[in-house]
Amino acid sequence: MPRLLRDRQSLPARDELPWWLSPVPTTIENLGFRLVWLVVAINLVGTAFGFWYYRAQFAATPTEMWLFVPDSPMATLFIAGAFALWAVGRANDTLTTLAFFSNIKLGLWTPWVLVVFAEEFLAFTPLPLYAFLLVSHLAMVVQAFVLHRITDFPVRAVSLAVLWYTVDLTVDYFIPLVGEPHHTAIPLARETPIALAATAFQLAAWAAVVLTILPLLWALATRVRTLEANRSFDR
C-alpha cells in the first residue's frame, strides 16, 4: 500500500475555483492523485472493455472511419494518458484538455441516451451491465473535474480539442463522409419519434452538440478564473 500511495507533498496544488468549476471535494481529488496509477489502470481496463463493447459497430463501419467509432474508450484512454504523464513529471496540456472534453462529453452523453432510451436498452442489456454503464460514465465526469490541477487549459490546447470534437461531431451526426453517421449506436430506428416531435436521432444529436459546447465553456471559465486568481496573488 505505501508504494501505491503517492506522498501528499507530491500532489498538484488545488486552484481556488467556484464550486461549479470544481465540484469534486478536495479529499476525493487528493485520493485520486495519490492513487494515480490505480486510476490509470482502471481507465485502461475501461478502454479495453469499451473497444470490446464496440466490436459490432466496428464490424459494420468502413475501416477508414474506425477512429470515429470508440468515443468513450478514447476518452478513458486520453485521461489515462493525461494522469500517467503527470505522474512521471511530463504533464501535457493538449492531452489533458482532450481528456477533459471527452470525459465530460461522453460521461454525460451516454447516461443521457441510457435514460432516454432506457426501455429499449433494457430489452437486450442485463440490468447489472446497464447500471455499470450508467455509473461508470458518470464517474468519467467526476475524474474530468480534477484535471484543473494539472493544466490551466491554454488556448492552443482548447482550440485543438474543439477542432477535434467538432470534426467528430460532424461525421457522427451531420456529414458522415463514408457510409452512415458514425455516432454510437442507439437501440431503435433513428427516425423513431420520442418526445415533442423529436426523433431518436435528433435527441442524440442535440445532446452531442450541447455536450461539445459545455466543456468548452467550463475550460475557458476555469482558465479565466485561474488567471484572475494568479494576478490577485501577484499583487
From TrEMBL:
The keyword Transmembrane is assigned to this record: yes
Keyword line: Membrane, Transmembrane, Transmembrane helix
Transmembrane helix found in the keyword field: yes
Pfam family, one: DUF1405
Organism: Halonotius pteroides
InterPro entries xref list: DUF1405
Protein's name according to its UniProt entry: DUF1405 domain-containing protein
Superkingdom, natural source: Archaea
TM ranges: 35-54, 66-88, 95-117, 129-148, 155-175, 195-221
